[in-house]
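<context>
A single protein, sequence plus fold
<sample>
Here is the protein in question:
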Amino acid sequence: MILTNARLIFPDGIRDGLEVVAEERKIAAIRQQARARGKDVIDLAGNYLTPGFIDPHVHGALGRDTMDASVEAFQAICDFHASGGTTSLLLTTATAPLENIVDVLKAVRDYRSSISAVAGVHIEGPFISKARCGAQRAEFIQEPSPTGVRQFIEYADVIKRVTIAPELPGALEAIESFRTHGVSVSGGHSDAWDEDARAAFDRGMRSVTHTFNCMSSVRRRGVYRVGGLLELALSEPQISCELIADGHHVSPTLMKMLYRAKGRDGICLVTDATAGAGLPDGSRFSLF
């Protein structure tokens, strides 16, 4: 397939006069535009063309949720997000009993080979803070016990990221265990003080989940002002910051501040889309 007559978006700007050759659903070449014609040539009529969006934080769409733990739900979620340009995503769980989350992991392991857009799973909860639970169900929140962590590590081939509140008892040991098994750890839904967040960073935490949302920030302790997870993330170049840049979760001023602090390469755009994505206004849906 050849995609021609488009304005190509690159990291350093927009370029014209090029065409993209795609083979087996991947970019095979970018070259000077030719006068090729044929059934495999698609004229994009001067519209913009960008690489597929990779979204590491997707809960659902069209009333279907990752927690449904079914191939039908996974396919519906991927198909909807593909319509917006997402070519790869992490199906993201909600805070729930461990057995329900394990059901998701089993289903993804069984079916991911048949759904190319599924890159793995992002475990968000239950190892989070009740003080910063947001829309997550507080009754299912728990500390990261060795038993619970081991249950997840059995699916380390499926789990690509796990969100943990660093201040919880057992969190630092859990971070080390996940990192040892190749699972990326993100701090989030956290009420951590600076020293908690830094300890997690020292153990291998290298990202934070939906920056500014459900995240501790500057507070007073005695006569001092002490940072939280947010300030640790802003201060460490090695930490990547998720950002929901939909204009509702985070104000333009905060987004600009984050960009000034982290730069283009330090920010990871996500949708954090729920089962409500794509439904008509006024529709009802549940978060597990």
